[in-house]
Amino acid sequence: MNNPRGDVRLRAAAPDEAYADAPRLLAEMRWVTDQVAARPISNGLSREFWLRKAALLDRIALAETDERYKAEADAVAAKAAHRLARYDRERGSGPFATRNGPLPPDSPQWGSSYRPYVRQEYAAWQQIAQG
């Protein structure tokens, strides 16, 4: 969004924007579990896996309305978001960087939660995937 001084303020995509073209939850669960089942060791899991898993868990947490489960769903989504951010942070910037969105995982904009980072990255990944 532009402001009167002309500088640009970046923001993470809102959940409904980031996940607008996402597969249905059950289809995404199947994809994530199939990836794990196909590899005996988690070291071989791709960045796409960590991104889609984090996005899936974020979507589940957003959809959870039962207060008995909401805190747990949020915690699980936060843990997966931190895992994706760590994956991207370990690969740094430059030609080997894995992030697609404008803000890096270490941006102060994320505060204590990387769930908005997941939304940024998922939205950017969807744009690339759709060509």
From TrEMBL:
Stretches for region Disordered: 89-110
Domain of life: Bacteria
Protein name: Uncharacterized protein
Species this chain originates from: Streptomyces benahoarensis
